[in-house]
Amino acid sequence: MAGAMLRRWLAEGLDPVQVTVVTRSGTRAPDGVRSLTALPVDETPAILMLGFKPQQLDDIAPTLAHLNPAILLSILAGVEEPALASRIPAGAVVRMMPNLPVAIGQGVTALYTRSTDVAVRDAAEALARPLGVAPWVEDEARFDAVTALAGCGPAFVFRFIDALAQAGVGLGLAPELAQQLALATVDGAGAMAIGADAPPAVLADQVASPGGSTREGLNVLDADDALKRLMAETLTASERRNREMAAAARR
Questions:
Q1: Which H or E element spans position 21?
Q2: Which fold has domain 153-243?
Q3: What are the residue boundaries of the structural domains of the chain, listed by start?
Q4: How far apart are CA 96 and CA 120, in angstroms?
Q5: I need a labelling partner for 42 at 20 to 30 A (CA). Which of 96, 143, 193, 200 fits?
Q6: For each of the chain's 251 residues, which pLDDT tens digit applies?
Q7: CB neighbours of 221 closer than 8 A, spacing ≥ 6?
């Protein structure tokens, strides 16, 4: 995810000379970006971004604790601000939760910080805006829910697209055609929903004529709130895992 964000920033005009990527191998950074296994001891980055797996925090944090950047950005799911601040001192900590479409500038990057410094918030927004929508979450307790919906959401949508296509194959369509139809249908419906004055639930009913084929299909999804219950269980499972990771990081 960090790599996808960086590539988008570079495509939007970020000077690669301003960026240093630190990895275990010290390789695989985009062209023009300095790639190291550790920052030189005499360098202090203005902005330090954490883009590794949350489970690696306690292994990696000690190697960064001396840096004291002005802003510490974290995309680590489930790792709360106090856990970050206690491990890596910084002027301010900003949590960012991007999702995969940030790679094409159509993602969601939720933001949270305790800082009231306008410069800190402006800097975070300046980085998030080229990636897509960048809402602030003012209550960190809600960040796990945001992660479950927006951060994990693209994977759930991909599953839905695949299921829609597979259902078409079950009706006799060629797999390639079914996938093409499913992808275009989700793309068009999403764009229409974004631009519509009515909420998606109302749009669904507007599409469905009484007694028609769309209504028959909606009756299956709506029976006993089947689709709503499935998505509620899905997001609850993801949120629960985020809370588990947060609890582990507090120890």
A1: strand 20-22
A2: ProC C-terminal domain-like fold (1.10.3730)
A3: 2-139, 153-243
A4: 13
A5: 96
A6: 999 999 999 999 999 999 999 988 888 889 999 999 988 888 899 999 999 999 999 999 999 999 999 999 999 998 999 999 999 999 999 999 999 999 999 999 999 999 999 999 999 999 999 999 999 999 999 999 999 999 999 999 999 999 999 999 999 999 999 999 999 999 999 999 999 999 999 999 999 999 999 999 999 999 999 999 999 999 999 999 988 988 888 77
A7: 227
**pTM, two decimal places:** 0.88
- Consecutive H or E run containing 202: helix 200-207
Please say whether the structural domain 2-139 has been given the CATH code 3.40.50.720: yes
H or E segment at 47?
A: strand 47-50
